[in-house]
Each structure stands twice: as C-alpha cells, then as structure tokens.
Design a protein that fits this description.
Elements lengths: L1 H4 L5 E6 L11 H10 L4 E6 L7 H7 L3 E5 L6 H11 L2 E6 L17 E5 L15 H14 L4 E5 L6 H8 L3 E3 L2 H4 L4 H16 L5
Parallel strand pairs: 1-2, 2-3, 3-4, 4-5, 5-6, 6-7
Length: 205
Amino acid sequence: MLAEAGGADAFHLDVMDGHFVPNITFGPSLVAAVRRRTKLPLDVHLMIQQPEKYLTAFAEAGANTLVFHLEAQGDASHMVRLGREMGVAIGAALRPETPLDRVEPLLAHLDQLLVMSVNPGFGGQRFMPEVLPKVRAARERLDALGSAADLSVDGGITAETAVGVASAGATFFVCGNSVFAHGPVAENLAALRAAVTRGAGRVVR
C-alpha cells in the first residue's frame, strides 16, 4: 500500500451506515480484507447508529481500535467494557457541536478520544477552527487524569491545519484528501508529519 510504504502509522477506516450519517461505506468484510494486507494498526471509526451491535464483528475482523460516537444509540459504558473484554482499544468520538462534558464519565477509561473537526460523513470538508478550544480542553483533562489515551482529530487535516491542531495537544491525526487527492502519497505524509512536529514541538503520529 502506498500509505504504508510512505510512512503511515495506522489506517483509519470510516464505517458509515446511511443512518447516523448520510453515506454508506463498508462493513467487517472490508476491514478483514485490509487486515490481510497490512500489519499496521487498524483504527475503525464507527459512524453508525447502533455501534454496540457490531463491536464484536469488527473486532473479529481485525480492528485494533474501535471508536464509537457518543451521539449514537447504546450504552457507552458497556461498549467500553466490551472492548476491554475483547482485547481491543476503545475510543469515543464527538461531533463538532457535542460538548466535551458529554465524555467526562468515560474519559479515564478510553484509549482514544476523537474530536471531529468536520461534520461526520462526507470527505473533503473544510477544517472547523472553532473546535480547537475543545481540543485544548480535552488535552488538559486527559493530562489531569494522567491518561495515555490518544487525542485524535478527524476532518480537514492538512499541512496548514495540522500545526494548530498539534499545538492544541492532539496526538493522532486523521488525514484523507490531503494524503491521497494530489501528489505523491509519501511526500504528502512527510509534509503533514513535519507540520505536526512544528506544532507540537515533538514527533507525534
């Protein structure tokens, strides 16, 4: 895969059901197919209305991390426990308009907190800078807990926007169009990594 050869640290796979978001993408079978092609971690983002019903299927397909949306249906605490029982990392995602307080009861138990910087669904959307205060606040809360959880940001991440996101404290950057739409993938990844390092003052993924 070009991304793996170019230095990607993980693959972020967006699962959409046509209900939680308008799009429909793929299910566990495609995750399993990707798993057969790479040893890199698979970060599976469940943009689906009933994630609780499908956690086991995606874990068995080879996901390393399962990220569900707090705005979706289901018992969030149970999903965190189920992830632990299955031996996969577990994360919670927040839409841009969802307040950070919503995740507070789970924060100490998460392996990843994903802050959406676009409305979930269609790719190619512009980064929403108004989410940066949320990212900073999330960084402060995770640090206060002594949490090693990844703070992930997804949506409109480019070499330009990544600097501010890294400065706000993110440690995991989800990139789509900025890597694959134009130019060599390896060069695009290198530019993004350089931007992140400038913003964070350290090498992050």
